[in-house]
Amino acid sequence: QVPLVESGGGLVQAGGSLRLSCAASGRTLSGNIMGWFRQAPGEEREFVSNISPGGDRTNYADSVQGRFTISRDNFKNTIYLQMNNLRPEDTAVYYCAVYQHGWNFWGQGTQVTVSS
């Protein structure tokens, strides 16, 4: 298990932007697929995006395609999620995850709230 610390969440108006960060400590995750998930109140956790170890391949949920961009800096052992044109339905706790024999969630998440 590798401690993950998500940050960058907050309250923003619809149409605004936020940039989330997820920093890992203890050991490098440069060889792992990393991802972002989110969970809205009363809903199940859902996939948002993932990125290959080298950062050259990414995937997005249809709901965020074209608005969110995932990236990573393996030297800093950090991944990012740039979120633009935010909508009220993007309101959720956002978690980063490490793919090791399945997705692992080792952080506390960061709250994103989008007001209309």
Describe the protein's architecture and organization.
- The structure is a single chain.
- The chain has 116 residues and is mostly beta strands.
- The chain is built from no helices and eleven strands.
- The chain is globular and about 40 Å long.
- The relative contact order is 0.33.
- The mean pLDDT is 95.
Helicity level = under 10%
Order of helices and strands: EEEEEEEEEEE
Helix tally equals 0
pLDDT averaged over residues = 95
Total beta strand runs: 11
The description of the largest β-sheet is: 7 strands, mixed
Structural Rg: 13 Å
Measure the end-to-end span: 38 Å
Structural class: mainly beta
- Our estimate of the beta-strand percent is over 45%
Low-confidence stretches: none
3D shape: globular
Question: How do you describe this structure in short?
Answer:
This protein has 116 residues and is an all-beta fold. The protein has strands spanning 4-7, 10-13, 18-24, 34-39, 46-51, 58-60, 68-73, 78-83, 92-99, 103-104, 110-115. Helix content is 0%, strand content 50%.
Topology:
Blueprint: E1 4-7, E2 10-13, E3 18-24, E4 34-39, E5 46-51, E6 58-60, E7 68-73, E8 78-83, E9 92-99, E10 103-104, E11 110-115
Parallel strand pairs: 2-11
Antiparallel strand pairs: 1-3, 3-8, 4-5, 4-9, 5-6, 7-8, 9-10, 9-11
